[in-house]
Specification:
The chain has 14 helices and 27 strands. The chain is an alpha/beta fold and 592 residues long. It has 3 domains: 254 residues, 3-Layer(aba) Sandwich (Rossmann fold), CATH 3.40.50.620; 158 residues, Ribosomal Protein L25, Chain P; 99 residues, Ribosomal Protein L25, Chain P, CATH 2.40.240. The strands form 7 sheets. The protein has a 7-stranded mixed sheet, with helices on one face. Strands 21-18-19-20-14-17-22 form a 7-stranded mixed sheet, with no helix packed on it. Strand 2, helix 4 and strand 3 form a beta-alpha-beta unit. The protein is elongated, with a radius of gyration of 30 Å. 40% of the residues are buried. The chain binds adenosine-5'-triphosphate (ATP) and magnesium ion. Adenosine-5'-triphosphate binds next to helix 3, strand 8 and helix 10.
């Protein structure tokens, strides 16, 4: 892998890149030392262009529409579309819809929405492997006529038994030597629907003794009597991934067919089909390491199970690592893209800390998110010397990181809500927030001093009474005196009640299912905490669904689609604490 982080986005790149690369350099001996390289795939593309092997680069993102896209797919999307954009080529969106049993239109729609959300554009290049079924069929016939494919009557289990192992060669099927005529006849009848599911397959006739198991007469077609989302009941035989993928690439003039490492052993087969068929172009396959994240499972199969078993509320549950989930949670697409820039593209598998993704997201939100006041766990404050019935509109900064975001008016009055955690009747030494006799600043408002505590029969504090200093309007004292804490607040008469949902890792363990544990035993029972008695300032009440803001001192929050007029619901996107910085410091120690 290369350690160069492309200079495309202005995130705190240098520290990030240096430490991350130092860590990976230890893991990956393939690391190139030449600093001008970006990553090994971009190098290959650049060389192919420079040396005239291709005129322009054509890539594709080829999802199977059998689930929603996850964060791992985003890496592939950013790589494929990124390369096309950087080298002036194009990237296709191709649905690999060859298995009608698991595929649905809902997934097709969600995948398109997710790629668009990441702000990539396939233009007119939207394709479906199913559009090529007729051509693929003709090519299968071509191989049969060449004596390079045959219809096998063995069952799936028998085929598996005949396949052999890594140390033992496979056994040839008794149907392997059928004549081309007989194979053509049977294959036509397979297509015509004469045979039940699983009764026959079409296999390439290559080498049952090959050291590469993928060469041991791989299956090209299966009989599946199922209605396809696009081709309906036109077909009852469907091509395998291995047979469909490379040929689809060739039809579309793909130059670089980029996939994850588990397909490395399939590459010779990919090339075999291309060499043995009259395809219109010669694509090549390149493999990179898939993204793995701590506390996260990136597998559509597992995500589907989480949905189906009700561990989450749906594919777009804010705890899900799907792109629709993180979008609902409030992650900006730019943060996702920045993250893929940070991790780069490697040739060997690794696990990236999810805190690094969160760090990238915070970087974007810190620059962009408007600051607002909200109180999640409210405690009443009454300002005794503030006139009853008076309301002042105080000016508050929308975003200290972005002057152009301007200011807003926040209503202030005699009764306020503050955070219960910000008050202690009997504080320990290092607690600087509100307590009896203590003066603190209310952000953008006044200095207040706690004069009295009101408790209920059980002894719980239900109200704090304060006095304010009218000379400290805006939050500064003319005599220059300082306070040690600044609290957020909401005027009780103006506060809008809100529901706030706090999120934590869906899987409590950094490595879910590791060390022989049941995967779902690692689910975090506290991944969601719902707070129903929160208050937000009026400016937040009608925030657009999907918009992410910062509730000062609390974190980033996104208006959820469950919001109703006057009853907003917010998802906590992230807290403000950047734990990746800490991990980074540890990494620096480890690699020093
Ligand atoms: P899953 O294992 O979640 O089912 P998949 O590989 O079967 O994923 P596809 O729809 O076939 O899902 O994937 C489309 C593209 O995304 C493929 O090129 C695949 O290699 C890539 N991809 C899938 N998961 C990851 C990942 N974790 N990191 C990087 N790329 C990925
Ligand atoms: Mg797949």
């Amino acid at each position: 892998m290369s350690c160069e982080i492309r200079p495309a986005r202005p995130l705190a790149r240098h520290n990030v890149a240096r430490v991350f690369c130092a860590i990976f350099a230890l893991m990956d001996t393939d690391t190139a030392s030449s600093p001008e390289r970006s990553d090994f795939i971009r190098d290959i593309v650049a060389a192919d262009l420079r040396e005239g092997r291709i005129d322009s680069v054509v890539t594709r993102f080829p999802p199977e529409p059998n689930g929603y896209l996850h964060i791992g797919h985003a890496k592939s999307i950013c790589l494929n579309f990124g390369i096309a954009n950087e080298f002036g080529g194009r990237c296709h969106l191709r649905f690999d819809d060859t298995n009608p049993v698991k595929e649905e239109q809902e997934y097709i729609d969600s995948i398109e929405a997710d790629v668009r959300w990441l702000e990539f554009d396939w233009g007119e290049h939207l394709y479906f492997a199913s559009d090529y079924f007729e051509q693929l069929y003709e090519w299968a016939v071509h191989l049969i006529k060449q004596g390079k494919a045959y219809v096998d009557d063995l069952s799936a289990d028998e085929i598996r038994e005949h396949r052999g192992t890594l140390t033992e060669p496979g056994k040839e099927s008794p149907f392997r030597e059928r004549s081309a005529e007989e194979n053509l006849d049977l294959f036509e009848r397979m297509r015509a629907g004469e045979f039940p599911d699983g009764s026959r397959v079409l296999r390439a006739k290559i080498d049952m003794a090959s050291g590469n198991i993928n060469f041991r007469d791989p299956v090209m077609y299966r009989i599946v009597h199922a209605t396809h989302p696009r081709t309906g009941d036109a077909w009852c035989i469907y091509p395998s991934y291995d047979f469909a993928h490379g040929q689809s690439d060739a039809i579309e003039d793909i130059t670089h067919s980029i996939c994850t490492l588990e397909f490395q052993d399939h590459r010779p087969l990919y090339d075999w089909f291309i060499e043995n068929l009259p395809v219109p172009s010669t694509p090549h396959q390149y493999e990179f390491a898939r993204l793995n994240l701590t506390h996260t499972v990136l597998s559509k199969r597992v995500l589907l199970k989480l949905v189906n078993e009700g561990h989450v509320r749906g594919w777009d549950d804010p705890r899900m690592p799907t792109l629709s989930g993180i979008r609902r949670r409030g992650f900006p697409a730019e943060g996702m893209r920045d993250f893929t820039d940070m991790i780069g593209v490697a040739r060997s598998d690794s696990v990236v800390e999810v805190e690094m993704l969160e760090h990238a997201v915070r970087g974007v939100l810190n620059r962009q998110a408007l600051r607002r006041f909200a109180v999640l766990n409210p405690l009443k404050v009454v300002i005794e010397n503030y006139p009853e019935g008076q309301v002042e509109d105080l000016e508050a900064t929308n975003n200290p990181e972005d002057e152009s975001a301007g200011t807003r008016q926040v209503p202030f009055s005699r009764e306020l809500w503050i955070e219960r955690d910000d008050f202690m009747e009997d504080p320990p030494k290092k607690f600087y927030r509100l307590s009896p006799g203590r003066e603190v600043r209310l952000r953008s408002a006044y200095f207040v001093t706690c004069s009295e505590v009101v408790k209920d029969a059980s002894g719980e504090v239900v109200e704090v009474r304060c006095t304010y200093d009218p000379d400290t309007r805006g939050g500064a004292a003319p005599d220059g005196r300082k306070v040690k804490a600044t609290l957020h607040w909401v005027s009780a008469a103006h506060a809008v009640p809100a529901e706030v949902r706090l999120y934590d890792h869906l899987f409590g363990s950094a490595y879910p299912g590791a060390d022989g544990r049941e995967l779902f035993d690692d689910l975090n029972p506290d991944s969601e905490t719902v707070l129903r008695d929160c208050f937000v300032e009026p400016a937040v009440a009608d925030l657009a669904v999907g918009e992410t803001i910062q509730f000062e001192r609390l974190g980033y929050f996104c208006a959820d689609s469950d919001s109703a007029p006057g009853a907003p619901v917010f998802n906590r996107t992230l807290t403000l604490k950047d734990t990746w910085a800490k991990l980074q410091a540890q990494g620096r120690q480890n690699t020093a």
